[in-house]
Specification:
Length: 434
Amino acid sequence: MGRGDRRIAALRRFAEHVAELAPLDLSVRLWDGTVLPLAPGARGDLTVAIATPAALTRLVRRPRLPTVVELIAEGAVDLEGGTLLDLAARAGSGSTRGIAKRLDKGLALRAFLPFLFGPGGGGAGHAYAGTQAAKHGAGRDDRAQVQFHYDLSNDFYALFLDPEMVYSCAYFPDWEADLATAQRAKLEMICRKLRLGPGERMLDIGCGWGGLVCHAAQHHGVHAHGVTLSQAQFDFATEKVRRLGLQDRVTIELRDFRDLKEMEFDKVASIGMFEHVGLDNRDGYFRHIRSLLKPRGIYLHHAIARPMKATEKKFRRANPEFRTLVNYIFPGGELDHIGGTTDAMERNGFEIHDTEGWREHYGRTCRLWTERLHASREAAYREAGEAKTKIWLLYLAGCALAFERGTVGIFQTVATKRTRGASGLPPTRADLYA
């Protein structure tokens, strides 16, 4: 038996052992065509394909999530027949809890040790290569970080977003609603919470492709101003405003919102932008927003949050999954806990009125985005490249699972610029949900 045959045989024995301990309706296909079912009678419709022995060598030498991401991006490892969501569904239906303790360590050693010494050079790398400084003004380049995420291709985003190109948590009137309906409902809910009125001036910080500012102008009669750091978003939003004939009511700038000076707005929205700010910059962020609001002006803050830990120090200790997300998708990104956000808002002159959790809505949103991108993946390969598309499929599916399982949440917080006297809000919130 040759060296290659011995390695395949050892992997087969290990796969049979795993299938006995925790049957999983999944197969692994090796570089020579050998199929290793991980359960008796595995259907074979969902398969992890390993293209070369070098892929296993890299995993054995560096068993980390970034290694997996790079291998998938390069095509050295692939999940055929579905997405991470399908894999999670199969794993969730099996008995995998505690499997690591029950594995035969000797069998595992014999299966994988031969790959430790093989050739296993890495690829070019697909992570963000710029500086990810924590503090604004201390080497942090927010424009470069934002453009790394958003300037892939507008056509790429159009493959999985709704027709209005809204790239934030949708709001489902019921769980069977389609994505377009849910995103329109979200835009309307934001406008209701801001209590927009005709003729008011509204600012959207990080306006994306212009969905909110256009909706607010069309349906609530406001004069809306949006700012973004993404050239691709700016180009799209500017053209959308022209196409809809809203030039007299909507303006878009390619500008850092911190450069807005001596301007005053009745209402301000920040939808899915705070995640880019960084925790060390949150006080300055809220102070500047307050400076742009009229007294008792309403601010709506919509942002992803992580659950608080026992201490702030433990909270700030990012797990491997989040570090990988930051490096490959969201350079410079950090998630606050909801208490930290509301503390910072109060500390910087806001009065909190309402906080509403939308976690399950974002889980549903990300699941639909994953399904849509996977269904259009060939077109996505042409727009953004195969490697980037595969990374994004991992990212969107991972986000869906995180929201569904409660690892992360998302909150909408309504606040006003604090002054003495009445808030100006109605006695109940019944009208929001009428």
